[in-house]
Amino acid sequence: MIKRNLLVISILSFVFIININAQETRVKYNFNPDWKFIKANPTNAQVVNYNDASWSTVSAPHTFNDTDTFDDLSIGKHIGEKNQFRGTVWYRKHFKLPKSDAGKKIYIEFESVRQIADVYINGQYLGTNKTGFIPFGYDLSSYLNYGDKENIIAVKVNNDRGEHFRDNFPLVWHHEHWHPNHGGIYRNVFLHVMDPVHITLPLYDNLKTVGTYVHAKNISKKKANVYVTAETVNESKKDRKITFEAKIVDANGKEVSCERKTELLKAGETKTFATKNKVTKPKLWYTRRPYMYKVVTTLKEGDKELDSYTTPLGIRSFYFSKDTGFHNNGEYAKLHGWGQKPTAGWAGLGAAQPDWLKEFTYRLMDEAGGNFIRWGHCAGSPAEIAMGDKYGFVTLMPGVSGESEDEGETWDIRIAAFRDMIVYYRNHPSIFIWEGGNWAETAAHYEEILKIIKTYDPHGKRLMGNRRADVKNDSEAYISIEIGTEGWQREYAHLPLIESEYLRDEGPRRAWDKFTPDDNFWTHPNLSRNVYKIGSEVFAIRQVEDWWEKMGKKSYHSGGANWVFTDGTHGGRNPTEVTRASGEVDAVRLKKEAFHATKAMWRPEAQIHVIGHWNYAEDTQKTMYVVSNCTKVKLYINNKLIGTDEKADNGYLFKFPKVKFEAGEIKVEGYLNDKLLVSQSKKTIGEPVAIKLTPIVGPKGWMADGSDIALVDFEVVDKNGDRYPLGKNTVNFTISGPGIWRGGYNSSKANTTNNQFLDAEAGINRVAIRSMLEAGEVTITAKSEGLQSASVTISSKGVTISNGMSKELPQTYTVDFNSEEPLPIYTPKTEPYNPARVNKSDLFTKFSYTGNGKAALRKNVHWGKKTYTDLEYNYTVIPRYLVGAEYVRMPNSDGKYWARDQLQFIAGADMEIYIGHDDRVPRPAFLLNDYKDTGDDVNLVGVKMSLFKRVAKKGESIIMAGNSDGEVPDDTRMYFVIGKKIKK
Question: Domain DUF4982 spans what residues (predicted)?
Answer without folding.
Answer: 621-675
